[in-house]
Amino acid sequence: MLDIKQMEKAIKLKGDKVIEQIPSTKDKALRINLNENIYGTFAEIGAGQETVRHFFRSGGSSGTIAKAMSAYDKDFSDSIYGIEEDGRYVTESRLKKMLTLETNLIEKRLSRDKHPHKMFFSYANTVATIDFAKQFKGHGWVGIRYQIEPGEEYNDIIIHIRFKETDARLQQETLGVLGVNLIYGAYYKHNDPKKLLRYLYDHLDKDQLEIDTINFSGPRFADVDNRLMSLQLVKNGMTDAVMFNPEGKNILPAAILYKKNILALRGSFRPVTSVNIDMYEKSLKMFLEESKVEKDNTLVIFEITLSNLRSEGEIDERDFMDRAELLCSLGQTVMISNFQEFYKVVEYFSNYTKARMGLAMGVNNLIDIFDEKYYRHLSGGILEAFGKLFYRDLKVFLYPMIDENGDIITSENLKVHPRMKELYKFFKFNGKVIDIVDYNPKFLHVFSREVLKMINQGKSGWEKMLPQGVADLIKKDHLFGYNPDKVLEKNK
Predict the structure, then answer these.
(1) Which helix H or strand E contains 67, and what residues bound it?
(2) Mapping DSSP to helix (H, G, I), strand (E, B) and coil, where does residue 323 land?
């Protein structure tokens, strides 16, 4: 029997109308068990056999479970799956080795002649739950390798999770429900990966766990763009931020941010312009001159907030793709976040590193930081936000701005609200704000919104305002509304 709270979670409403009834975890496991062609193995490490437990209890499991195992002892685990180079066990590499071995075993041990209609799968997870001191809440890798048709090539869905609950038993239960949702979605929602993603939280709350990385692969997902799937994670509130490497691939934030010196540049990058790259190059040079910054340990991140990805209230996914592809083509690491305020960006990075950080920004951004209206939701107001922002080992590298009178605005002559003057002077005096002085003056007249307007209107001349090669990519792929026919018409 479902209690009231569970019933509310199990029913999706549109106004007063029920539009979808979510099957219970038991019903999902039972439906899998009653499908005589779904057959596979479960390998779970670190949090008990929580997923397979649901299939055993729902009934009819003998037609689904070929094997269930947990190699808890490290020596046993190494003997079965091999030794990781970094000596860790809760890694994507470990999960993939588990999936590969278990899939190979089921193909080796079960004859296709005897089971011509079987769709084999291997489900695996490798997880660390909350530690005894409750300092680290735990995380894990969860995945399934499976077939939709008998004998076809395998498909993979691999996710990384972070636990938010502070009790190991609760984390185990959460993991079990997630595992059932993943297996069920893999078979019954694979045609709509966006829905599959949302259904991972069936009978779970966002305050129970975070999904911060997901990757689909295989013939059934050949047309799936994993970057767009990552965008869905942020859009749906499943995580605060996702990241892509210069090759445009999803990367785990924790893996790349850990103990790094981080220099972050926030912008719309619609499109990325010469002023963005000048700010990046000059701020990076200054950042590397800092005493606590090591070049080999420094990571530069171009960050786009989710609010900058909206078009008429909805996220324009094509627009997102255009920006991410251009930044990655320039060899940059990109982060998409739902952070409105700068202090939240710094707080996020501080979860992974205590090393010195830098923020590169324009004068307008700094003026906004000192605007009280952005902090009315905080009980401590702007002082609380600044405590979170500048308490860290952080410096702001400020790119100048030219005003309507042609004057150059820097940290020395910018104007903040009168109530903020002394606060601004305090941080300026303490060396938290540093001017970028060797900027290129000709770039001060470049604004991305003007470039975008010129592209949309078919005007010429915008190409010289962008980094080398970017204009060619925009024209080649018709990005940001570029229309060669409109350009020809303009030139007639």
Answers:
(1) strand 65-69
(2) helix
Where in 363-475 does DSSP place strands (E)?
394-399, 401-402, 408-409, 433-435
Overall average pLDDT of the 167-174 stretch: 94
Phi, psi of 270 (to 5 degrees): -125, 70
Nearest to 399 by CA among 440, 448, 368, 432: 440
Structure tokens at 111: 């004859």
Q: By the 8 A CB rule, do 129 and 172 touch?
A: yes
DSSP letter, residue 24: P
% helix, strand, coil for the chain, step of 5: 45, 20, 35
Look at the block and give the residue holding tokens 């606590």.
292
**CA–CA separation, 434 vs 414, rounded Å?**
13
pLDDT at residue 373 tops 90: no
Per residue in 279-319, pLDDT (tens digit) is: 999 999 999 999 899 999 999 999 998 865 554 456 677 78
Q: Looking at the domain covering 4-224, what would its CATH class be? A: alpha beta
pTM of the model: 0.88
More confident call, 181 vs 392: 181
What's the confidence (pLDDT) of residue 6? 47
Domain 254-445 of CATH type 1.10.12: no
Q: Which of 77, 60, 49, 11 is nearest to 180 (CA)?
A: 49
Q: In whole angstroms, what is the distance from residue 464 CA to residue 455 CA?
A: 12
**Rounded CA separation 228/119 (Å):** 28
Domain ranges of the chain: 4-224, 254-445, 448-491
Say which residues have a Cβ less than 8 Å from residue 120's Cβ, sequence separation at least 6.
Answer: 39, 40, 103, 106, 107, 110, 146, 147
Give, for 262, the enclosing helix (H) or strand (E): strand 261-266
> pLDDT-based confidence at 481, cuts 50/70/90?
confident
The answer for residues whose C-beta is within 8 angstroms of residue 218's C-beta and 6 or more apart is 153, 154, 155, 156
HSE-CB of 472 using CA atoms within 13 angstroms: 5
d(C-alpha 455, C-alpha 171), whole Å? 51
Asked if 202 and 11 count as a contact pair (C-beta separation under 8 A), the reply is no
Q: Is the fold of 4-224 the same as that of 254-445?
A: no
Q: Report the chain's terminal Cα–Cα distance, integer Å.
A: 73
369 exposed, middle or buried (CB, 10 Å; 0-12, 13-18, 19+)? buried
> Per-residue confidence at 31, pLDDT binned at 50, 70, 90?
very high
User: What is the gyration radius of the CA atoms in the chain, in angstroms?
Assistant: 26
For residue 455, the one-letter residue type is: I
